[in-house]
From TrEMBL:
Matching InterPro entries: RNase_III_dom, RNase_III_sf
Keyword check for Hydrolase: yes
Protein name: Ribonuclease III
Cofactor(s) listed: Mn(2+); Mg(2+)
GO cellular component: cytoplasm; nucleus
GO biological process: siRNA processing
GO molecular function terms noted in the UniProt entry: metal ion binding; ribonuclease III activity; RNA binding
PANTHER family, alphabetized: DICER-RELATED (PTHR14950), ENDORIBONUCLEASE DICER HOMOLOG 3 (PTHR14950:SF46)
Known EC number: 3.1.26.3
Residues annotated as domain RNase III: 79-223
Pfam families in alphabetical order: Ribonuclease_3
Length: 472
């Protein structure tokens, strides 16, 4: 409905909210009831909200009954050994047998595998680790808690735990290719210098499935006693990541570092046989850095390439440090607080055309569409240009002067009146060329003054032959 403006009050005093805000409130209410009254209270709240999520004991009893009918005599030694390693003795041994049976074994007539228990274990581990992080990191904000959970609850971490806790030998399977992949991965983990070198590397997901399915089996065997599941799995998961030692995936770390520094990188992935080759190019002020990686997937290859770039940046004194409530950049070049940020502009759908697309222009000369002079338009045009050409983001120096008398700015519908005068200067470093600066006109607000400076810079770049601005 185009008549609805999010955040504005209607005639009845109501305020329109986006669906995400409402969903967050619903989740917060359920969380509050769980913290205050436990699982039963949370379920009552969910039912009141119209979410059907009853716990039916008969389903658990049925799962236990089915598992009780399975013969474990041929795997008695393996089950006893695994129970000893877990520190938990199963009442229904068939549940543990199901949890360690690879899916392919079902094809040879067993009639069961770990898939359903893995589905259940995935959910319960997510829930238990979320509760642990919430209770133990009361000072952490929501985004940091999400990062901590992502670092703990993921297939890669669970696969590594299976290797470090020596759980992988208990996986029952007859697949030669899977055994070879597991053997290769075990050696990779053993030889790894640190956890970061394993980030983005290919791993057998079946090991993560094994870890999750064991959690699901214990949950059923204890008749949904989540405290007992956590008693067993907390030592296996330890040490659980904290804000002080949180490691982001290399590709994400590189992305956030470049966002903070105002740099852009380009990525290119090529399939060669069974592997993917990735190349990341990062343009600093006057140095082009290249990181290369190889992996079975594009994600893994880009992770390796990003890791190489991060190490190269660190050797140049540029690093990324995760703090409890903020991320600090350490660089010998100060970062301006007024560095330009991308501004979405729905009216400006295409602001950058292909190089040399206008008649009479030299090959390689970027051509941008006519600049939208509405608020944010010039900055968006320059941002897209910098991203395309990998120019570092420009910085602003804005000065403010106060007037005793009101001053009018702009023309027509853009006319404003105010007592504050803002003037901005913009500086753009073009690799292998130098710094280009421009001073904008005085405006009634800071962002408008930055738009004015940006517009002057765009026209100055056109005079220098660095771009061509198209006609409206």
């Amino acid at each position: 409905d185009e008549t609805i403006i999010v955040g504005k009050s209607c005639d009845n005093g109501h305020r329109w909210l986006v669906s995400k805000s409402i969903a967050d409130c619903v989740e917060a209410l359920i969380g509050a009831y769980y913290i205050g009254g436990g699982l039963v209270a949370a379920l009552h709240m969910m039912k009141w909200l119209g979410i059907e999520a009853d716990l039916e004991p008969s389903y658990v009893d049925k799962a236990i009954q089915l598992a009780s009918d399975r013969s474990c005599s041929g795997k008695a030694n393996e089950i006893l050994s695994l129970e000893s390693k877990l520190g938990y003795e199963f009442s229904t041994k068939g549940l543990l047998l199901e949890a360690i049976t690879y899916a392919a074994e079902q094809e040879v007539g067993l009639g069961y595998c770990y898939e359903r228990l893995e589905f259940l274990g995935d959910a319960v581990l997510d829930f238990l680790i979320t509760c642990y992080l919430y209770r133990n990191h009361a000072d952490s904000y929501q985004g940091e808690l999400t990062d901590l959970r992502s670092a703990s609850v993921n297939n890669e971490n669970f696969a590594q735990i299976c290797v470090r806790r020596n759980l992988y030998p208990y996986l029952q399977n007859c697949s030669t290719s899977l055994l070879n992949r597991i053997t290769e991965y075990v050696q990779l983990v053993v030889d790894a210098e640190d956890v970061k070198t394993l980030l983005g590397r290919q791993f057998p997901k079946e090991l993560a499935d094994l870890f999750e399915s064991i959690a699901g089996a214990i949950l059923i065997d204890t008749k949904l006693d989540v405290k007992e599941v956590w008693r067993i799995f907390e030592p296996l998961l330890s040490p659980i990541v904290t804000p002080d030692n949180l490691e982001l995936p290399p590709f994400r770390e590189l992305t956030e570092l470049c966002d903070c520094l105002g740099y852009f990188f380009k990525e290119c992935c090529v399939n060669e046989g069974n592997v993917v080759l990735a190349e990341l190019k990062l343009q600093l002020k006057d140095i082009l850095l290249i990181g290369e990686g190889i992996g079975r997937t594009g994600k893994g290859a880009k992770g390796q390439a990003a890791l190489h770039l991060l190490r190269d940046l660190q050797s140049r004194g540029i690093s990324y440090v995760q703090k409890r409530r903020k991320r600090d950049l350490h660089d010998d070049v100060p970062i301006s607080e007024d560095s330009m940020e991308p501004l979405p502009n729905k009216k400006q759908k295409a602001c950058l055309l292909l190089p040399g697309s206008a008649g009479g222009l030299g090959v390689g000369t970027p051509v941008i569409a006519a600049v939208n002079t509405q608020k944010g338009g010039p900055r968006t045009s320059l941002y897209d240009l910098c991203k395309r050409l990998q120019w570092p983001m420009p910085g602003f120096e804005t000065t403010e002067h106060k007037s005793k008398c009101p001053i009018e700015f702009g023309e027509g519908s853009n006319r404003k009146q105010g007592f504050n005068i803002y003037a901005s200067k913009i500086s753009l470093h073009i690799p292998d060329f130098g710094v280009v600066e421009a001073m904008g006109e005085q405006r009634a607000d800071k962002k408008s003054s930055q738009d004015s400076a940006t517009l002057c810079l765009l026209y100055k770049l056109q005079e220098l032959g660095k771009l061509v601005i198209g006609c409206s």
